[in-house]
Design a protein that fits this description.
The complex is a heterodimer of chains A (273) and B (302).
Chain A: H1 2-30, H2 50-57, H3 59-93, H4 99-112, H5 115-128, H6 135-160, H7 164-171, H8 176-187, H9 189-204, H10 208-213, H11 222-225, H12 238-262
Chain B: H1 10-38, H2 48-51, H3 59-64, H4 76-105, H5 112-126, H6 129-140, H7 146-153, H8 161-164, H9 166-191, H10 195-203, H11 208-237, H12 241-245, H13 256-266, H14 270-301
Helix pairs in contact in B: 1-14, 4-9, 4-11, 5-9, 9-11, 11-14, 13-14
Classes of the chains: A mainly alpha (273), B mainly alpha (302).
Chain lengths: 273, 302
């Protein structure tokens, strides 16, 4: 009898979890295919792709997604991954004084100078650098904010590769630059993949930083361009917003599937933002 | 053990580190220091104070902590209290509590259900924030939203969530959004518990509740503390509620991040914005130092 109650409680909790986490997403999946959508969840009677066609007619929003978002996310991803690899390699292989505490101090700074606290000084720095309304300004800020955690994650991977290859190359007379590029970099590629995907996902969805640093509509990423599906009166064109949302979420969903399939959704270092 | 020869000399090491340190110095360390200076000026973007901000002493702080209207909606004190409620409910109870419950519920229960729940939880976490904000605006809609559809079917009426229960709405939303981190952290922590501990308890006839209370929770304590502090730090700084409520109605969901945004980027009062940022950074600093102290303690016991 007690066992039965335990099992009922268990399945009730599981059902609650599925409903709580799944129901809000249901609208996102169904609405884009509905010819006349509302905020209600409805299974489309006659599913259509017309909404996507209409979305592609909004050149501003399309450019935001396929051009601006890609530039910002790829720029931040490449910058973060490469600089983090260099830095993590140095921290792992050179006897730099204070290197153990350095990573923690950096993580500390990145947790303190974030979101609320950072928006004012970040804006002013970019303003005085003359980089307001440039892709570069946004990318630089992303890279600065992501680096500490990226170095932290990458450090694990560098520490995990055997030193013997590098030692042999040094004995054979290779320069540190060659050792890094030809020996270490290929070995830490899995770590770079993890950091790259993480950095991409972090910046792909970002709203606040581009929102305060960009001005011209033609440079806005999708997180801001999505509001172009609002009417003058400030009400959203629900169907198009939903279709655009789905397109916008697809790269992240694909990356999730890749990560889940290649590595399993494991945990690295415990740092998200 | 013999001292290993360093693969990289200290000089080359510094060269490798330099680019990363440059970025971190410019975008993390410098803002941290500069903001203190800015908070004592009347820096703005337009007008005379834009080019030549002047020193105003403690004026920005005094305005922030003006106790005559401190708790009026839309003022700093009111925003701080809203933030504390938001963090307490959505981070401490919501994310950490639900994350722990999920991790324990699926501990040693691998299968389709676990895959399904974990996938949904992770999707809620990684989909772009603007997109999930729209999904929630639809979910909470008074007339057509899924939530009210269900509630009205079971006879609980159709409350106007965004108007009557604005803060609870963003609290539930934020719980939904962020639980994945805690779930994943606790799941991987549970994996590291040696099976023999539980087997021994089972042989001794311990109930599920006793195993939870006497074995799992004590072993998870360090992870729970770590998780609590990180989640608190992040929730304290999140801007996402803005995308659902804009801080309204009547400032009811104006957490500190939205308050800062309004002061700095809608009123262009960067001096006051900087003063708020200093207060927030000091709170962040306390939390982060707590986190580091915890990490160090764990390292000692490990």
């Amino acid at each position: 009898m007690k066992k039965l109650f335990a099992s009922i409680a268990y399945y009730a909790f599981v059902a609650f979890a599925i409903a709580f986490f799944g129901l809000p997403l249901l609208w996102l999946v169904l609405t884009p295919f509905n010819p006349r959508a509302t905020l209600a969840v409805e299974i489309p009677a006659s599913p259509t792709l017309d909404n996507f066609r209409a979305v592609f007619g909004n050149t501003f929003a399309v450019r935001a997604l396929v051009q601006n978002n890609l530039i910002l996310a790829l720029g931040a991803m490449i910058g973060t991954t490469f600089l983090a690899a260099l830095a993590a390699y140095a921290l792992s292989r050179a006897q730099i004084p204070g290197r153990e505490s350095l990573t923690y101090v950096l993580i500390l700074f990145s947790s303190i100078v974030t979101g609320t606290a950072a928006m004012v000084p970040i804006f002013l720095i970019i303003y005085y650098m003359g980089l307001i309304d440039t892709y570069l300004g946004v990318i630089l800020v992303f890279v600065g904010g992501l680096l500490p955690a990226a170095i932290f994650i990458m450090r694990d991977f560098v520490d995990g590769i055997p030193r013997s290859y590098e030692e042999s190359a040094l004995v054979a007379g290779a320069t540190p630059r060659r050792v890094f590029l030809d020996i270490a970099l290929p070995l830490i590629r899995p770590g770079m993949m993890v950091v790259a995907i993480w950095a991409f996902v972090q910046t792909w969805g970002a709203f606040l930083i581009p929102f305060i640093l960009l001005r011209s509509p033609e440079r806005m990423p999708a997180s801001i361009a999505i509001y172009s599906f609002y009417t003058e009166a400030g009400t959203p064109n629900v169907t198009l917003v939903a279709a655009y949302s789905l397109l916008y979420a697809i790269p992240v969903l694909v990356l999730y599937l890749i990560v889940n399939w290649r590595y399993g959704f494991r945990f690295f270092g415990g740092i998200k933002r | 053990m013999e001292q290993r020869r360093a693969i990289l000399s200290v000089q080359s090491g510094f060269l490798f580190l330099l680019p990363a340190l440059f970025f971190i110095a410019l975008f993390l360390v410098f803002p941290f220091l500069w903001i203190f200076y800015l908070s004592f000026t009347n820096q703005s973007l337009t007008g005379a104070n834009a080019a030549n901000p002047s020193f105003v002493g403690l004026a920005n702080y005094l305005a922030l902590f003006n106790f005559r209207n401190w708790l009026t909606p839309g003022q700093f004190g009111s925003s701080l209290i809203i933030t504390i409620e938001f963090v307490f409910a959505s981070a401490l109870i919501g994310q950490v509590g639900l994350g722990l419950a999920l991790a324990i519920a699926f501990f040693r229960h691998k299968g389709v259900l676990r895959e399904l729940v974990y996938t949904l939880v992770i999707l809620a976490w990684i989909i772009p924030e603007v997109v999930v904000a729209f999904a929630w605006i639809a979910f909470l809609d008074r007339d057509n939203g899924t939530l009210n559809l269900i509630l009205s079917r079971i006879g609980l009426g159709r409350p106007d969530w965004q108007l009557e229960y604005a803060l609870p709405s963003v609290i539930i939303f934020n719980t939904w959004r962020g639980t994945a981190f805690s779930t994943l952290l606790f799941s991987s922590a549970l994996e590291t518990i040696p099976p023999s501990y539980l087997e021994t308890a089972e042989v001794a006839g311990a109930s599920a509740w006793q195993k939870l209370r006497d074995i799992l929770l004590p072993l998870l304590r360090g992870h729970i503390l770590t998780d609590l502090i990180l989640i608190t730090l992040w929730t304290f700084n999140t801007f996402t509620p803005y995308l659902i409520t804009n801080g309204g109605p009547a400032y009811k969901t104006e957490v500190v991040s939205i308050y800062t945004f309004r002061i700095a980027f809608q009123f262009f009062d960067f001096g006051s914005g900087a003063a708020i940022a200093v207060v927030v950074m000091l709170i962040n600093l306390v939390l982060a130092i707590g986190y580091l102290a915890m990490l160090r303690r764990q390292a000692v016991y490990a």
